[in-house]
Each structure stands twice: as structure tokens, then as C-alpha cells.
């Protein structure tokens, strides 16, 4: 049984703040799929894939970098079975540093494992990896390590307005 076939979800209003913010952002944009709050953590792409009964590549994982020039958060959304090529990202947005958990939380308003592509208090610089377009359906983080939402790669691009780039080796 997949997560989408499980028992009814507890209303988003009773969930953590980040999850509620993503649920509200999806609803405001008319997205057809409300986020799911899983019983198990979906902190890693593999955990999310296992919980949802999908292949790990269908998980839209969020990788956050810190741009050196202005300390802006740079969010790269890539396929769960790919690694981000930091040099390719830097070539598009400028020199980068790794982002520690405190920076990720402060800059994106989400904790690692729950960084959503939407619902940010301050919008990050964002890139979407073209590798996600190998799949008809993907799942992205919904503002909490237990939260996910279903969408297509095209919907991800439309919801975020982020450019689709080649950012993997």
C-alpha cells in the first residue's frame, strides 16, 4: 500500500508550521495534490522512496548551498538518485560554500530533510535539475521531514518559476 492509499490524513492545520505553510502555498496555487504527512521520516531520498513505494529517482531532493557573494541560499532540486555537481551550480549562480544545518534553517525556514521547493519565508535562488524530467510523477518535501507532496516535474517548474538546468555530473 502506498502512502497515498493509506488512512485519511490529519488536517494540515494540526501539523508543524513548515508543513502548514507548504500546504497553504499549494492550495493558493491550485495544486491538485495536498501534501501527505507520513508516519515515518522521509528525511532522506531513500526513506521517502521506501515510504511511498516509488523508486528513489522520483524523490525531488533539496540540496542547499550558500552563495559566497551575498550569503543567499541556493536551493537545487534534483532527482534522489543523482548527486549535484557544485561546479555546474556555481557556474550558473556564482561561487558557493556548503550550507550547515543552522544556515539551512535560517535561510529557508525549513530543517534539513524537509526543505520544500515552495513556501519559503524568503525565496532562495533556485535551480531544478533536468534529471527529474525522466519521471512522470515525482515527490517533493513539504516543509517537514515527514511531509511530502506529489507533482510532475513540469508542475515543479511552474510552481517555483525556477530554471531547469543540467546540474549533475
Characterise the protein shown here:
- This protein is an alpha/beta fold and 169 residues long.
- It has one domain: YbaK protein.
- Strands 1, 2, 3, 4, 5, 6, 7 and 8 form an eight-stranded mixed sheet that branches.
- The protein is globular, with a radius of gyration of 15 Å.
- 43% of the residues are buried.
Secondary-structure map:
Blueprint: H1 17-28, E1 36-37, H2 45-52, E2 59-67, E3 73-79, H3 86-93, E4 96-98, H4 101-108, E5 125-129, E6 138-141, E7 147-151, H5 153-160, E8 164-165
Parallel strand pairs: 2-6, 3-5, 5-8
Antiparallel strand pairs: 1-7, 2-3, 2-4, 6-7
Low-pLDDT residue intervals, each spanning 5 or more residues: 1-8
Distance between the ends: 34 Å
Number of helices, counting only DSSP H or I runs of 4 residues or more: 5
- Overall shape: it is globular
SSE pattern, N- to C-terminal: HEHEEHEHEEEHE
Descriptive keywords:
globular; 169 residues; alpha/beta; YbaK protein; 22% strand; eight-stranded mixed beta sheet
Q: What is the compact description of this entry?
A:
This protein has 169 residues and is α/β, with parallel strands linked by helices.
